[in-house]
């Protein structure tokens, strides 16, 4: 594999967009990413679209919005992980030497109003809040986790989203634990502010070779996509085969270890992390499974303010979900992973050196990626 | 609150048959019922279901005057004629749940709720269309047949299951003939009516689109069950007003119809090499070695690993005695992690786990 870079990213706000907006969203996010990279659609020699919703127009239709150039178009679908799956595909296409520059578009905006939740349930799954509520109930039983721990994670991400112009949920005031706890109960112990609002939107990224990057007249620090890994379920006793949406939490541990291994990085050096925090309980698992603390330590660390602003400086631990995550940023299946990449690029350009992205997709898969600030190419 | 609901006799069936247009002889002809594998005639699902909804309303459950709401009936067991019925009404989630039992066994559940998703139009096969006026006389006869507790005048809401009378208007009125199932082997699994903005009212006229959708197959111990939905969408000047869906089940061609049978074990698969079992059944081993697995009946008991409730229903993961974890619907709470739970219901139809 040769080195792979992200030359630019862009996105459109997550939230409510009327049916029929997909083409405009695709154009908006793609143009922003291409402008950020400083190149044109005509410079691309590949296009990969990631979308989860079956009624979102397929990428081959959306690519034509940007130009009718004959370039190869591919689709990636992995439910919530569709965006990172599309980036993974671009990583292998560029890394193999087959392509020089691939535009990745993550998008979900169905042409008719059919909720993502009902699509997931239509595959024979339990409603997603119920599954993750069961993760929470069991962890409370095993570790003494309380609703306040869940509220602390949610409030942290809601407050990060206040500074993200693309977030679906932007609170005008500081969000407190009390406010999160007082919101409507969805599936005990999860309240509505501990659950993602889903939504629609688009995000895009230009994934390219070092040679392509060097030809661009950019003075921004280069961002390298060092490794990407897709992990599906591995059987272990207690495996739920039917209706679980996503496999055992341990799938995330394997995915993170593989991505770090391929990249040759130590998790302790990772400074900023974006995860599949569709439900607040998930982050408590991921702090441990991604390798940042030992099992059972998450609650104590959260009580002391770890994984939030200043975490790196105070605890030597990364900040999590710095754009508001899925909880407050919103979670259309297709673009969510690409929005994580957008945030990662923003963080690395601002001075962070090493970052990780993580998503889960129903069915199920965990996808992890390592990004690194590199010397400017050229 | 639990209360007796009386019995359904042949006169009730006749009255409902006339008011609803359901003419399936399995409900009134003893010989036909016996030839179909039943002990005798049994009530139409929407008859005792209608009684159950009326009872819930009389007990204080309310149907919204405007805005979206849904009424769902699930049928677990047939209700024979002339047996004592009991009903239990409780609040659940955004609305109410009422359960009809015979000899302590749940036969039907009615739920009145505000849905998380508004009803939407869908697509299907063999569409037929008609104009559907909600007539005062027809509405009164229907209301009386389901013991509707309110007066019916022009402008009054009609019972939520009233769209069953569509058979008087549709070009092809017989729903079982529509879905192409054999009447003697057909059961009603579920009826749901989703209202977009308040109930249907006497005097309104709707454009109806009825179609067949979601054909699917489930495998049970007695063989293959075929399920299909018959959906009618009722639209007025403001667009979609109600979506009426019936799920029909074609039972296997055998002597005993599954919904009339009792119990059974969950069917799983056993890996003869590792001794591990899995649910649901699978053909090949989990390690990629492509070993063929053997059928195994799974234990009916286990301990609760975790649980929650969502939309008024309780869900859990239960660790069965042989280490298989199943994700299931739970009976009513209170629930406790680590407590013993037992399989209830019919494994070929509706089943759940309840606290032992």
From TrEMBL, chain A:
Pfam families assigned to the protein according to its UniProt record, in alphabetical order: Thiolase_C_1
GO molecular function: acyltransferase activity, transferring groups other than amino-acyl groups
Taxonomic superkingdom: Bacteria
Domain Thiolase C-terminal: start-end pairs: 252-350
InterPro entries the UniProt entry points to: Thiolase (IPR002155), Thiolase-like (IPR016039), Thiolase_C_2 (IPR055140)
PANTHER family the record matches: ACETYL-COA C-ACETYLTRANSFERASE (PTHR42870), NON-SPECIFIC LIPID-TRANSFER PROTEIN-LIKE 2 (PTHR42870:SF1)
Protein name: Thiolase family protein
Organism: Actinomadura darangshiensis
UniProtKB/TrEMBL annotation, chain B:
Coiled-coil features, chain-numbered ranges: none
Signal peptide positions on this chain: none
InterPro entries, per database record: HotDog_dom_sf, MaoC-like_dom
SUPFAM superfamilies registered for this protein in UniProt: Thioesterase/thiol ester dehydrase-isomerase (SSF54637)
Membrane-spanning residues: none
Domain MaoC-like: 12-90
Domain of life: Bacteria
Similarity comment: family membership: Belongs to the enoyl-CoA hydratase/isomerase family.
Protein name (record): MaoC-like domain-containing protein
Source organism: Actinomadura darangshiensis
